[in-house]
Design a protein that fits this description.
It holds the Pfam family Peptidase_S58. This protein is an alpha+beta fold. It contains ten helices and 15 strands.
Length: 374
């Protein structure tokens, strides 16, 4: 289990909006993230947990909304979020076949904190998102358990790791090593400074599509892969070379979690979550048929107490003042995807399958990208 980046060097800064001091989703006050990583032989998987605040999210719910950009996914809990516009558990990320175990773990944790759930009180809505890490991970082993959720939950802090950690351990992105990515942006909206942070679970894309800050890096890598005669740890693998054709269908998924301290209601958060698609598109994705692309946005500006007869909202940002937040969302998601690629280490997993990191694949091309913002 790790809460430290594999790479100490930050990814190139995308766009002109400033990042928060941490450059992660934890720049949004109150948000913390924990990972539990399974990395042994054919088991390359894990769990990541995002806590919207340090309290009990069932007792003090936060406003939220989701946008399903392409629905080839097996997440749990989205129907109630769509209906009620709140979160009442932490957000959990894992592999596709781990969803059931993690949902049960969330339910048990909520019952421990609130023994009246399911009896005098309504049941709890677990919220679990997934991507298929079956290329690197033996997903049929059903290795993810309740214990791994608990470990990730207990590890939650503002020291947020990126790369091949937690749920991102076995993920692939643009035929390279993918995983967890983080970013934040600070903008002025309605006369005040607000932070928008993003965390992604990146497991999508074909290599020739990869675009970083407008540079078609994937095309060059695909051409190299197609002409490669030798393969080693510093080059692309045979698997990547075989799949580096532009006409091969895009498969995989991405989960994009967007947090903000701007006071928005669920309807406005739905609008904000949909702008995650703009950041995703900038990296080269076309939301392919077999890709599950889902974005969820929540606000930490206020909570909704469980069972309250009335809810007092703070003054909300007016809709016509939301453009800076939309821009921050798109930039944060784009940056977080680049961060996932930049921070990941190369990983060998099931049946010798290997995904090479971006930095190992093309160290010369990586140096041509923008100098990271210090």
């Amino acid at each position: 289990m790790s809460n430290a980046n594999y790479s100490g060097e930050r990814a190139p800064h995308i766009g002109t909006l400033p990042a928060g001091p941490l450059g992660t989703i934890a720049d949004v006050e109150g948000v913390s993230v924990g990972h539990c990583t399974l990395a042994e032989g054919a088991l390359q998987t894990g769990v990541s947990v995002i806590r919207p605040h340090r309290g009990d999210p069932f007792a003090d719910k936060v406003p939220a909304a989701a946008s399903v950009i392409n629905g080839f996914g097996k997440s749990v809990g989205l129907v109630q979020v769509e209906e009620l516009g709140t979160l009442e558990t932490p957000i959990a990320l894992t592999n596709t076949f781990g969803v059931g175990a993690i949902a049960q773990a969330q339910i048990r944790a909520a019952i421990r904190a609130n023994p009246r759930i399911g009896r005098e009180w309504p049941t709890v809505n677990p919220l679990v998102f997934e991507c298929n890490d079956g290329y690197l991970n033996d997903i049929q082993a059903l290795a993810v358990t309740e214990q791994h959720f608990n470990e990730a939950f207990d590890a939650a802090s503002t020291d947020v790791a990126s790369g091949a950690v937690g749920a991102g351990r076995g993920m692939s992105c643009f035929d390279l090593k993918g995983g967890i990515g983080n970013a934040s942006r600070v903008v002025n909206a309605a006369g005040r400074a607000y932070t928008v942070g993003a965390l992604v679970l990146a497991n999508f894309g074909r290599l020739p599509m990869l675009t970083i800050d407008g540079t078609p890096l994937g095309r060059v890598l695909a051409q190299r892969a197609a002409g490669a005669t030798t393969v080693n740890a510093a080059n692309v693998t045979h698997a990547a070379a075989a799949s580096a054709t532009a006409d091969k269908p895009e498969q995989g998924s991405i989960i994009m979690i967007v947090a903000t301290d701007a006071p928005l209601d669920a309807r406005q958060l739905k609008r904000l979550s949909s702008r995650a698609a703009a950041g995703l598109a900038r990296t080269g994705s076309v939301y392919g048929h077999g890709s599950g692309d889902i974005a969820l946005a929540f606000s930490t500006a206020y909570t909704v107490p469980h069972g309250a007869d009335r809810v007092t909202l703070p003054p909300l940002v007016a809709d016509h003042c939301m453009d800076p937040l939309f821009r921050a969302c798109a930039d944060s998601v784009e940056q977080a995807i680049v961060d996932a690629l930049w921070s990941a280490e190369s990983v060998t997993g099931r049946d010798g399958h290997r995904r090479v990191s971006l930095r190992d694949s093309a160290p010369d091309l990586v140096q041509l990208l923008k100098t990271p913002e210090q």
